[in-house]
Each structure stands twice: as structure tokens, then as C-alpha cells.
Amino acid sequence: MSPSDAVSALVGSKLRIALLGVLVLGGAVGGAFTLGILGVPSVAAVDNTFGNVTNETTEIETDLVVSNPNPVGIGLDGVSVNYTVSMNDIEIAQGGREGVRVGTGNSTVDLETHLRNEEIPPWWVSHVRNGERTALDIEATATSDRLGRGVDFSQRREIETDLLGAFNSDETRPVNADSPLMSDPVLYVNETRGEWGTVSESETPIEMAFTVYNPNIEPYAVTEIGYDITMNGVEMGSGQTEEGYVIPSHSTETVEFTTALQNRHLDDWWVTHLDEDVRGHQVTGLRIEFYAVIEFPGGEEVTVPLDDLTYEETIETDIFGEGDDVRDGSDSSGSEDGSNSEDGRSETDGGTSDDGNTTDGENGTDSDGGTSENETDDGSGDGTENETDDGDDDDGVLPL
């Protein structure tokens, strides 16, 4: 055998051995997957944040972490990943990718989807109907294309708000007409109450009630109460009552009426809620202003701004827990599907009047015609003072 033939035979045998080794290794790895000796890749975490927001769409940026428990990376056939994000079972985002190449350990897959802002009103309706609570559900799956099976991941956050809680108040506030026809205050509002009505697809009603006291010797008629509602400056609704009330002398009367948010404006509000330049990221200022039309005994009518009854509330949400890990924990054996739950309640700031101060009903008139500082008669005739709320609350912050 010539030297060149010997070299060719040696090289050929090495190539055959190497090829045989690759085939054996490939078969071993494939067999190991088939037999379950090597693990199936799974989703270890799904981190969502809000991206760019337009009048029509909201960008949702997703970092989906795929965990490969095997000592070798997975290429070629790769891994398929899919995920959905829902709020109160209303799907707001869905995405995925096929043929993902992952190395050993954790690999991050960047995905981007868009929420249509027109989905915000249906979610809002579900949020109010559910007692101002939202369940945010994230469902994800990593599937090995080689094995044709995958592992599910699920995670839930609870989002909770309290928009009307601070409106319920026993604080006494004067109603000043600033009119030469009568001396102020012409009335007192001793109590305010508010609760959600029956929400529809088109509007979100708020059932309100004012307990009004007339300290004068003549009856007054409240012929109309009007309101304007804004959220981050977006006009959400306005209107007025259709029924009048007569407040007898030295007596109280409960004035009931309904205000309403017009749901068609919610997608416009949503854009401002996510805009850091408005009030901060995921921050909203709710404001309800009132006025009353009062008819005096002589028939004169005066429109009175109810400035001391202006209701302001700051709503802060953290829908995705941005900046927080939503991983299922370092112990992957904690549950079969890697499910995890995290509380993501929002915060609200307590409502205050325009000047931020409480009023105490100073110079209120009692039932015998005299006056006494810091008290008003509630119409019961027992001489007990009508104490006012000191305005202290929990700053409107709900525990997370």
C-alpha cells in the first residue's frame, strides 16, 4: 500500500468514525428525549410592560423566559412558545413564536403585541360589575417541536380599586349662594353617599344622595342639581336632575340623583392613564363637580357652585406589576403547571374638597334661632351638635 493510500484510508476511517459518533450521539439525545431522560423546556417567567400608546392601540412588550433543563441547547426544530393575557376573561393580548433556539438554562424571548384600546370599555364594565376587581391571567406554553409536547405556565394578579369610597362622608359642608337676597349659608350638606348603579355597555351610573339641612325660617326649593365628571381632564359625563326637592325650615331632606360615566370615552381616558406626562404612569385624577339651582321663597332662582362638595380621587394602578418578578418561584416543583399568584391591587388617594380642607359648619343655626360655633342642628330638635368629620383618612391607599 502506497503512503497516499494509507493516508486516505486513515482519514476515511476517521471521518466514518466521527460520522458514526455524531449519529450515535444524536440518536442517544433523541432517545433520551423520547424516554424522558432529558427534560422538556418550560416557561419560567412572563414579564409584561406597556410600551408606546396611541389613540387606537397600546403596545404590550413581553419578556418570556424559557427554561431548558438539559445540558445541551435546542436548535433546528427548536421550541414553540405561546401566551395570552386576559383581564376578567377578556383577552387583551396574544402572541407567540415558533422555532425558538434556546441554550442551556434560561433564555429570554422578546415578544410584542398590541391591545386595541376599544377593548378597554368592555374590561371597565367587567371591573365595575365585579366590585372594582379584576383578575389578570397570564397563560403561557413552551412546546418542544421534537417531542410534540409542552409545559404550561400560569400566573394571576388581582387588581382592585375604590373610586367612590371616600365620597361617603358625614362631613358637614355649607352651601353659600353669595346672593344679596339671602344671608349665607343658605343650606348645609350634612352627609354625602355614592355607589355604583347598574352598569351597562354604554354607561356607568353612580347613585348619589345628599342629606341637606335648611337652617332658615323659610323653606327653600332645590330645583336642580348638575354635575360634571372628568378623568385626567377627559370629559366622562355631565347632566342634571329632573326632579326638585323642597327643604322645609329647620329640617333635613335627602336629595337623590344619578350621575353617569359615558363608557365611550374610556378609551380616550386609557391613553392618559398610561401617559407619564399627564399625571404619571398608570395614574388618574377623577374629579366630580356639582352645582345646585336654589329657588328662594320669593321665586328668585340662583345657580350655586357646590365647591365644597367637589370630589377628587387619585387612582393608581400597577396592572402588570412592572418592575416586579412574576416568576413562578425558584422551586419549580411547587406546582405541576408552574402556576403562581401575585396580588396587584391598585392604590387610590382619598377624596378632598377643592382647597383640601374640611369645613365644620361654622355659624350653623340651631333649632331655636340662635347660633353656635362649629355646630348645626340636624333637624331632630334635641339640641345635639352635628359633629363634622376631621378629614382624616387612610390617605386613600389600599393595602397591596
UniProtKB/TrEMBL annotation:
<feature type="compositionally biased region" description="Low complexity">
    <location>
        <begin position="349"/>
        <end position="373"/>
    </location>
</feature>
<feature type="transmembrane region" description="Helical">
    <location>
        <begin position="17"/>
        <end position="40"/>
    </location>
</feature>
<keyword id="KW-1133">Transmembrane helix</keyword>
<dbReference type="InterPro" id="IPR004864">
    <property type="entry name" value="LEA_2"/>
</dbReference>
<dbReference type="Pfam" id="PF03168">
    <property type="entry name" value="LEA_2"/>
</dbReference>
<feature type="region of interest" description="Disordered">
    <location>
        <begin position="316"/>
        <end position="400"/>
    </location>
</feature>
<keyword id="KW-0812">Transmembrane</keyword>
<protein>
    <submittedName>
        <fullName>Membrane protein</fullName>
    </submittedName>
</protein>
<feature type="domain" description="Water stress and hypersensitive response">
    <location>
        <begin position="43"/>
        <end position="160"/>
    </location>
</feature>
<keyword id="KW-0472">Membrane</keyword>
<dbReference type="InterPro" id="IPR013783">
    <property type="entry name" value="Ig-like_fold"/>
</dbReference>
<dbReference type="GO" id="GO:0009269">
    <property type="term" value="P:response to desiccation"/>
</dbReference>
<feature type="compositionally biased region" description="Acidic residues">
    <location>
        <begin position="374"/>
        <end position="400"/>
    </location>
</feature>
<dbReference type="InterPro" id="IPR013990">
    <property type="entry name" value="WHy-dom"/>
</dbReference>
<feature type="domain" description="Water stress and hypersensitive response">
    <location>
        <begin position="189"/>
        <end position="311"/>
    </location>
</feature>
